[in-house]
Write a structure and sequence with these properties.
Radius of gyration: 25 Å
Shape: extended
Mean pLDDT: 74
Number of strands: 0
Largest sheet: none
Length: 99
């Protein structure tokens, strides 16, 4: 999986700031007008946000157990489980691209 640095790519999206020179005032400053847009979320989205906020994405206790097992040298990787998980993810991605 390739991870790109999208911050560098989108760093200059047309937002400019006022530039002034010390002691020269703002006579040669460049400004940009900013329009404000209103965003309205559907009730379905609001309901999903509430569900996500109340449910845990990961189990902190399980993470601590895995960290302790790795530190203690007792953590064992099941290569079959990893391979099956990768295959399932690729299958899901391919199905969503064709749909």
């Amino acid at each position: 999986m390739k991870i790109d640095d999208s911050i560098k790519k989108t760093g200059s999206l047309g937002v400019t700031s006022t530039q002034t020179r010390a002691g020269k005032g703002v006579s040669k400053a460049s400004t940009t007008s900013v329009s404000s847009d209103n965003v309205h979320r559907s009730s379905q989205l609001q309901g999903l946000e509430g569900q996500v906020a109340t449910s845990s994405v990961f189990d902190a206790n399980k993470v601590d157990e895995i960290k302790a097992a790795i530190a203690g040298g007792q953590f064992q990787v099941n290569p079959e489980k990893v391979a099956n998980g990768l295959i399932n993810n690729v299958t899901d991605l391919l199905q969503t691209q064709t749909a």
